Each structure stands twice: as C-alpha cells, then as structure tokens.
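Usage

Read records sequentially. Each one opens with the input sequence:
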Amino acid sequence: MAAKAGPPRGMRDFLPAEKRHRDAVLATISERYQQHGFDPIDTPALEEHDTLHSGLGGDNEKLSFQVLRRGLDTADLQAVTSLDELTDLGLRFDLTVPLARYVATHRAELPSVFRALHIAPVWRAERPQKGRYRQFVQCDIDIVGEASSLAERELLIASADALDALGVSGYRFRVNDRRLLTAVLEAAGVAPDQHLSVLITLDKLDKVGIEGVLDELTTRHGGQIDARAMRDFLERASEPVELDAHAIAQLMSATEDSAAELVGWAADVAGRIGPEKVVFDPTLVRGMGYYTGSIIELFHPELGVSLGGGGRYDGMVGRFLGDDVPACGFSLGFERLIDVVDSRRHAGASRLALVYTEQTPLQALLGVKAELIQSGHAVVLAQSKKNKKALFGELETLGVSRVAQVESEVPPVDELTWRELGE
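and closes with the structure output:
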C-alpha cells in the first residue's frame, strides 16, 4: 500500500511561487520592524511542558501538541493518572509565552527596555477548517521593560509602517483597555472572580449580537449580574465613540483619568498614521486572560476579518522572574495578511532563464550563468522543449521574467538576446 502523499491535516506544502511570495512579504515586515528598532530573536520550536502549561497561554494551552518523554514503556503507561505525566516537552502554540521565558532566561544579557522581533511558525491542535491551520506563522513585536504608553505608540506606528510598505490599505486599529472593561463589569455588579468568564461572553458580541450576549450572561450568571446595566452599556456602545476622555469615561463608568491615558496614546498614533486608522471600540475584549491594560485589534472592515492584535501583559514575564516586568506586544496575522498583499508587488527580484539545447556546451553555459549571477541576477537553467508555450509557462511560475536561448555556440553575456515573458 502506497504511503499517503499529502501533508498532515491542517498543515500545508507551498509551491515555489507561493514560497517566494511569503518570503518577500516576511522580508518586508522584518525590514520595516527592524527600521523601528526591533531586534530579531528566535526560540526553539519546543518548550518545556511546564512552561507551556503555566496558565499564561489561556485556552491555547489546551491546543498544545505535546511530546512524550523518551524511554517510556507499557509499565509507565499503566501507572499514570494523566497523559500530562507522560510528556516533558511541547510545540510552542504562540510566541508570547516563549518570549516571556526568553526574557527571563537572558535578562542579564538584554537591555532594560528590550524591543523584540520574533517571526516563526507555531503549532496548535486545532480542528482544521478554512483559514485555520495547525501550523502557521506569527509575526510578533514586543517591548519589554517599558511601563509608559510609549510602548503602545511604537508598536502601532511600526505596524502601520509595515502594512503601508506591503500596500495594505483600509485597515483599522481598534483599541480599548482591560481596566475600562473592568469598570464596566464592576458597575454591572460582576464579582471579580467572574470577570474573565463575563469578558469571554462579551467577546462573542460580533457573532451573536446583544441579545445573544445577554442570554448567555443570564444563563451562566443569573442574578449575579445587573442585566439592565449591561444592556444599557451594550446599546450605547453600539454607537461610534470618539477618542474623547470624557465621553469614554461616561460610557465605561470609569474615571476620566483612566480614559485619558488611552486617549492620549491612541490620539497620538492616529495623528501620525491617519485619524481614520485608529478607532475606540468599547466592546473590544480579546480573549486572552493575560492582558492587563491596553488591548488592540487590527481589523479590515472590507474583508470583515482580524489581521492581528495585541496589548499589554504586565504580569507574564514576572511569572518567570518573580519580579514585575512591564510588557506590551502586537502580532500581525500573517496567514490572513498574505492573502491581502498583492503578490505582484512583493514577488521579490525577477529571475532570468537561459534556455539551452542538447548541443549547448555545458561548461560555457555555466560560465555565462556565473557572469549573470555576479552582476546581481538570479538565473534559472532550462532545457529547450518543442512546446515553447508550455516551457515559458513553467518558467513564469518560477518567477522568470526574461529568457535567452543558447544554442551550440554560447555568446558573451552582452550579446545574449532576451525575450520578455508575459508579453
């Protein structure tokens, strides 16, 4: 029986044109972020089981691919009460938890304020479906050690620059703050130990609407929540809210000082990247429980999808160090972003092709190829075929823009006759 030829479910192969497009987009993102002072790092694909299941990864911890300990036998399998006892490693399910561990590991070698750029694949045991994969790339930038809103400002300005460099338009940064949401919950009488549960329900607003959210809150929390206060908030929050501290404070049942902090950095960013690109969304939650302050989502209204998100997570690094360390990060959703970016704009350098025959002297052919490479060109060799249309079609899929035919006599480079493909 022949082995199955396809990749594992939820994972993908990439043909050369796709891979070139992905690499070109990643190169642009990396270049722009580094221009803004973010330093590239990398971490192992595998992390210790206890690191990945330390309570920092939220629901993603349940989606971790776990690795069995070496040397297990049937006696070990019979003796355990939990499968976790059989594992000591796991594939990283995001880049935030590894970053927190990385900073704790290398704290003495890093600057007091560290700007990290981490672009790498992650793995989650998702149920595969359209747009949701078990292996995918994340593009994260994080600022660790900066307690002020300078972090939020830098993260969004750098990300907007990367998006603009990719030719992405029409995007919006939706912003909110967990502390403002906490004020809403307190005004509705939600007990502190129920805050996360209620926020998870609020996070479903876009999918189930106001009535759906209220029905779930009533079912799960009953008389423990002031449904009238929550309905009032949701109805008022459905209308656009300007970046105004007084208006936000009134809506969120918060102090004007707490609203002013958000307005300060968000308005500054809007002034720098475009006022239409930053909007306050009082119902923005983002499901991860580790957020402690600002929360951000990159949204594309025309596509109706999120292209990334992030926020402040001041408590995470301290879980490894034992000392509080402020941290804020943002992640571009690369797998969705790649579908938005025009592949023709970011296809990378075009390639040349030398089409040769059986009579072409290979030594001379390779000499011409070497000269072209030395002059900065990428060069593909292709043997001639009777069906030139099919041959040129194959070469176009390889990113070739011009071809030169080389017969039994190989001319000097400056005497080659080039033909433009696609004309």
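Summary fields computed downstream for this record:
- The CA atoms of residues 353 and 380 lie 5 Å apart.
- The mean pLDDT is 89.
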